[in-house]
Write a structure and sequence with these properties.
This protein is an all-alpha fold. It has 7 helices and no strands.
Length: 198
Amino acid sequence: MTTTGWMTLTALGVVVLWAVFAYNRLVMLRNRIANAFAQIDVQLRRRYDLIPNLVEVARGYLQHESRTLEAVIAARGQAVSAAQAARAQPTSAPLVGALASAEGLLGGSLGRLLAVAENYPDLKADATMRELSEELSSTENRLGFARQAYNDQVLQFNDAAMQFPALIVARLLGFAPAAMLESTRSDAEREAPRVSFG
């Protein structure tokens, strides 16, 4: 084989090795997104499990606020469905966006429930309600940290997939940009409900 042949073969080998490295790195980063979403999913499941208990405790006191309770239950159902869909494809921008929207609705309806509960002294004094509210608050904090970790992984993946020359491998092999998980989309959602059960 001639020198030119060896140089061509070496250059081709380097390109192939680089493409394999770029592919493996993108796969690793995509898997990290899935892992980060799994951490969010754990907190979402905990949150979804707490909500029916919170609603049941409040139901006895809030007999005249059935629409508020029904809104929380409906929003929880939508959020559970959106989370199941996103769990199957945690890098899918439309599914993650649908989850963010469903979570926004759930957060708003929970905020309204807790605000209405403020008007009922007996409910505020209920030990189970206080305990559930504290657990929900703790879960919300954990969920915030899990969202941050997920978004950090998405940023790292998107950066890697959009930088040249890895961009070539990403485009050729179908590595689409992943979507950030936004917890809020409007100023109204950014306002935290004020709750004090004690």
